[in-house]
């Protein structure tokens, strides 16, 4: 992924984190991808989720994403 592509992911990652935060019991990763698939492809989505997990913003268990902050 190029630096420009990474930079363009920031607002999408922020929106994804907000969607996860607004889901009181979490959101299945596949459902979130469906909401965002017109904005990014699957490899970019997986990279974004990995980054959010690495930053401690979300956690994933059995494909369920929950907000941790």
Layout: helices, strands, pairs:
Layout: H1 3-22, E1 27-28, H2 29-36, H3 42-54, E2 58-61, E3 64-67
Antiparallel strand pairs: 1-3, 2-3
Q: Outline the biggest β-sheet.
A: 3 strands, antiparallel
What's the count of strands? 3
Question: Low-confidence runs (pLDDT<50, min 5 residues)?
Answer: none
CA radius of gyration is 11 Å
* CATH class annotation: Mainly Alpha
Q: How are helices and strands ordered from N to C? A: HEHHEE
Proportion in helices = 55-70%
Q: Provide the spatial order of strands within the biggest beta sheet.
A: 1-3-2
What would you note in describing this structure?
Helices cover 59% and strands 14% of the residues. It is built from three helices and three strands. The model has no long low-confidence stretch (mean pLDDT 91). It has a three-stranded antiparallel β-sheet. It has one domain (3-67): Winged helix-like DNA-binding domain superfamily/Winged helix DNA-binding domain (Arc Repressor Mutant, subunit A), CATH 1.10.10.10. It has helices at residues 3-22, 29-36, 42-54, and strands at 27-28, 58-61, 64-67. A hairpin with a 2-residue loop joins β2 (58-61) and β3. It is α+β, with helices and mostly antiparallel strands and 69 residues long.
């Amino acid at each position: 992924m190029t630096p420009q592509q990474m930079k363009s992911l920031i607002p999408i990652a922020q929106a994804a984190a907000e969607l996860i935060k607004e889901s009181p019991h979490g959101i299945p990763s596949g459902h979130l991808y469906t909401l965002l698939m017109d904005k990014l492809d699957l490899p970019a989505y997986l990279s974004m989720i990995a980054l959010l997990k690495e930053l401690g913003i979300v956690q994933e268990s059995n494909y369920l994403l929950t907000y941790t902050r």
